[in-house]
Amino acid sequence: MSTTTPGVVFSDTTPLSSLKLSVRLDENVTNQKSYDSTDLGATLGYSKKNSRWSVSTNHAATYDTTRSSEESSYDNSSSIARHTGVTSSLSIGYMPLPGNTVSIAGSGNLSRYDSSLLQNYNTYSASASFGYEFDEFNTAVLSVPFNRYETSRNDASRSDTFSPSLGWTRIFSERLTGNASAGVQANKQYAYGTVVSDWSWNYVFDGGLTYRAEQDSIVLRAVRSQNANGNGQDALQTSVSLKGQHNVNPSFTLTYAANHRNSSYEVYSAGSSEVLSGGSVGLSYHATDCLDITTQYAYRYETFVAESTNAEDHAVTIGLAYHPVEWDL
User: Less CB within 10 Å around the terminal CB: N or C of the chain?
Assistant: First the structure.
């Protein structure tokens, strides 16, 4: 398989505002013509702030395949489908007193597929939060989010989730920061507008550590939350992930990643993802200021609900990355 990815990024940044537009194209060619694809992606982000107010908005659009849009193969790895995705979000923050922040946010996403094996779906979210800064190293956050997941094809369904949580952010040092939040989640599922499961209650959490130094960058995260899937299933997923980078010297950079995820369902269909694990390790050689030579090995293993089969993948990639220096317009 060969992938060619040209892209361009436009940005304008000041101390109080930022604007960024990125566009990329992926040209994928394989030894099986039915797997070839031309994928497009674009993102637009804008933020602005003053002494008390802040606002940010982000938008993204993709036209790709399920090879890149879906984490799971849904026990159907023999074929791929076209996917179109659009996402928009808006966040507004206000600081009534120094160290106190009130925020509201909302987002919407739509995903469409050209295969009847997958479900077109929309997701919507809204949240309100309050942050209190005890000192420059410790901040507490109370968050109250609401999420809706709904499908729009075949057996139309809907899932509503409400999950208030209390969190804490701690700056341990210039290099190490941490965050943790925990709460309860209420979830109700509908089919054709009829309740198929009463409110179910579960615990949820989100926590992580970030270490950044001159040679190393490491991010460790653990999350338990409700997530949408392209096969029409809404899952409560518990995941652990590790991502890191080590600059061996000015010429070589080592990257590595690992993840493990379990999914549980109130209502499920055969072929839904159950356990998904994977990892990768890569090495980049910075040949010039504008040219990198890269190589990576990746592994993925997945099991499925009510299926005896599993999916296992090994992939080795070698690439050239050309990134010209920045210039002013």
Answer: C
